[in-house]
Amino acid sequence: QLQLVESGGGLVQPGGSLRLSCAASGFTLDYYAIGWFRQAPGKEREGVSCISTSGGDINYADSVKGRFTISRDNAKNTVYLQMNNLKPEDTAIYYCAAVKAYYYCSGYSESEYDYWGQGTQVTVSS
Q1: Which of 16, 29, 50, 63 has the maximum number of C-beta atoms within 10 A of its C-beta?
Q2: Buried b (16+ CB within 10 A) or exposed e, 2-18
Q3: What region, left, alpha or beta, does residue 114 occupy, with left being phi > 0 and alpha being psi -120 to 50 degrees?
């Protein structure tokens, strides 16, 4: 079965850090760009970051740029999202998603992503 599984979420104080993982099973991520999305209560899902198949193209939402870092290890079939200096407004369910791509990670709508994980909760609060 083709599946993406997120992990690493939890409760953290403002200014703290978390590292999310997105592991694929049943298929290889070699030909897939990966996007991280999040959805906060009462808000629509938004794109956070994406990374191309080789890692050569990376994009971040303005709200997280300079604080979050996306990376991938194709040998481990896993993508990571390092989140530093977390803010209460970062509280959301975080999802990873995979889309068939070769050179870029940008330019894909949410509906174009082929696979989605179940999500992991990130809560930033004192």
Answers
A1: 50
A2: eebebebbeebeeeeeb
A3: alpha
